[in-house]
């Protein structure tokens, strides 16, 4: 068990894992595993997203969010539980809260043929007509992040003494979501509920999250001793963290660390913040039961058995995105 209390999240180079150098690969696996057993977050470079792609993606996202609310609302489909398209201001709240977050966002999932979507039981993507290039750029980024996520999961599998390809078939056509977020400007800070924040503290639902744009101020992670640590990623890095599904599957060996996005100082509330997390989900049928190798006398089994699909449904109800049908 790694008991270090770090002041900043560790930085790793994904090229060390993929370059074919066995020594570097082993070190990457160990460093990643130790980081995920303690702070639950790392910053990664050489993740496969070019500067041009990142810039094009942000340009498209900024264009979309600058459209009038009435136009954006054309792409809001609340019957899809916020799983595709636009989700309006204040609609999502963190688990255990009622006040909505100060954000609007857009969700993109797997782009598959109609037959494949039906087989997986996924809704089709929704694309805005008003922003040329939005679809192409978003899908290119989706695929690059999915590839980087697959490499990260291979490293995690090795750290857990599982076959390197353990997660491969589980994430093939997985229910992953690219979330483009706009923390919108607020002209009068007194006009929003006093306890409203950009993103209230939460753990992510999925296996791992790959986050573009965390370098802008605001993102903080909760260290084990209760101290909030600001994330300071470099422009060329993306941040990768453990989500609740992976934490559950490893019986809490890997940590899904609570994080939040705090509001800027009052005089900067009129400014925007953008970020783009990729939530890497497995296929709905993945069994998230705690791995036997992570259960022992000191670490008794902490969770009941559940599939990824059922776990997601449970959490979407808790987030206010899915109405409880019971
Ligand atoms: O905006 C960020 O930096 C983080 C967003 C986040 O944690 C989330 O959407 O789950
Ligand atoms: Fe998050």
UniProtKB/TrEMBL annotation:
Keyword Iron set for record: yes
A UniProt-annotated Pfam family: 2OG-FeII_Oxy
Cross-referenced InterPro entries: DIOX_N (IPR026992), IPNS-like_FE2OG_OXY (IPR044861), IPNS-like_sf (IPR027443), Oxoglu/Fe-dep_dioxygenase_dom (IPR005123)
Keywords, sorted A to Z: Iron, Metal-binding, Oxidoreductase
Domain Fe2OG dioxygenase: 173-282
Domain of life: Bacteria
GO molecular-function terms, A-Z: metal ion binding; oxidoreductase activity
Similarity remark: Belongs to the iron/ascorbate-dependent oxidoreductase family.
The name this protein goes by in its record: Flavonol synthase
């Amino acid at each position: 068990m790694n008991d270090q209390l770090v002041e900043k999240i560790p930085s790793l180079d994904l090229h060390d894992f993929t370059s074919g150098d066995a020594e570097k690969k082993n070190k990457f696996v160990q460093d990643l595993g130790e980081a995920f057993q303690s702070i639950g977050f790392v910053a990664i470079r050489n993740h496969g997203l070019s500067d041009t792609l990142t810039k094009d993606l942000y340009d498209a996202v900024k264009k979309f969010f600058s459209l009038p609310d009435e136009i954006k609302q054309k792409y809001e489909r609340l019957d899809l539980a916020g799983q595709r398209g636009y989700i309006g201001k204040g609609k999502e709240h963190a688990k255990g809260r009622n006040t909505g977050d100060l954000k609007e966002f857009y969700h993109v999932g797997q782009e598959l043929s109609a037959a494949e979507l039906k087989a997986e039981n996924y809704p089709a993507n929704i694309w805005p007509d008003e922003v040329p290039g939005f679809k192409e750029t978003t899908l290119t980024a989706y695929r690059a992040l999915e590839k980087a996520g697959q490499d990260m999961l291979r490293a995690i599998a090795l750290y857990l003494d599982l076959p390197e390809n353990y997660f491969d078939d589980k994430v093939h056509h997985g229910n992953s979501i690219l979330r483009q977020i706009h923390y919108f400007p607020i002209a009068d800070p007194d006009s929003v509920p006093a306890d409203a924040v950009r993103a209230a503290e939460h753990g992510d639902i999925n296996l791992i999250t790959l986050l573009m744009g965390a370098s802008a101020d605001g993102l903080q992670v909760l260290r084990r001793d209760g101290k909030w640590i600001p994330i300071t990623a470099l422009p060329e890095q993306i941040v990768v963290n453990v989500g609740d599904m992976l934490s559950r599957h490893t019986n809490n060996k890997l940590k899904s660390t609570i994080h939040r996005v705090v509001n800027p100082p009052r005089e900067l509330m009129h400014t925007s913040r953008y970020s783009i997390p990729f939530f890497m989900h497995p296929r709905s049928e993945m069994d998230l039961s705690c791995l036997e190798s992570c259960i022992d006398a000191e670490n008794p089994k902490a969770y009941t058995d559940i599939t990824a699909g059922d776990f997601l449904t449970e959490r979407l109800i808790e987030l206010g995105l899915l109405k409880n049908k019971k």
